[in-house]
Amino acid sequence: MAAQNYKTMELPPKYAPKKSEPYMCPMHLAYFYQVLNSQKEELMQERASVLSDVRMAEKTETAGVGDEVDNVMFDQEINMNLRMSERNNKLLAKINAALDRLENGTYGYSVVSGDEIGLPRLMARPLATMTVEEQEEYESRKN
User: Fold this and answer.
1) CA distances from 124 to 95, 96, 105, 117 (A)
2) Are 103 and 139 in the same domain?
3) Are residues 38 and 100 in the same domain?
4) Has residue 23 got a pLDDT over 80?
5) Most buried in the list 44, 45, 74, 138, measured by CB within 10 Å?
6) 75 and 139 share a domain?
7) Do 29 and 93 fall into the same domain?
8) Domain around 77
9) CA torsion, ordered 77, 83, 89, 90, to nearest 10 deg
């Protein structure tokens, strides 16, 4: 089976990768491809909604509707939506990077050591780029 087939592969309903299957076999790749694309689609829809909310709040604020308290609330809403949009953009970049790793065959392997990240970790955190141990060491050095 060609490595690219994971993009069009249909998985059985409620499929979940199993340790008994070869690590990052086409079925695993298809599963994570679908998970990541689903997350990406969700973020894209959320992004459009957030931008629409910001535009609406800006129009309402500039239309001179409301008093000072209303304007402060509009500003807070705009700022909150912009922070959410920024957070979503960062997450979207991580999803795109994970999809790139799927494409080049490095998904599921640590960017530090090249070791297998492991199915349980990837199932819990599909964007993981390091093993649990490497992540813990990274976090401890960061603090």
Assistant:
1) 14, 18, 20, 11
2) no
3) yes
4) yes
5) 74
6) no
7) yes
8) 22-107
9) -160
Q: Is residue 82 part of a domain?
A: yes
DSSP the chain: --GGGGGTPPPPTT----TTSPTT-HHHHHHHHHHHHHHHHHHHHHHHHHHHHHHHHHHHHHTT-S-HHHHHHHHHHHHHHHHHHHHHHHHHHHHHHHHHHHHHT-TTB-TTT--B--HHHHHH-TT--S-HHHHHHHHHHH-
Residue percentage of the chain with pLDDT more than 90: 64
Shared domain for 130 and 79, answered yes or no, is no
Q: What is the pLDDT of residues 74-116, one digit of tens each?
A: 778 878 888 888 899 999 999 999 999 999 999 999 999 999 9
Token duo for residue 104: 């080049």
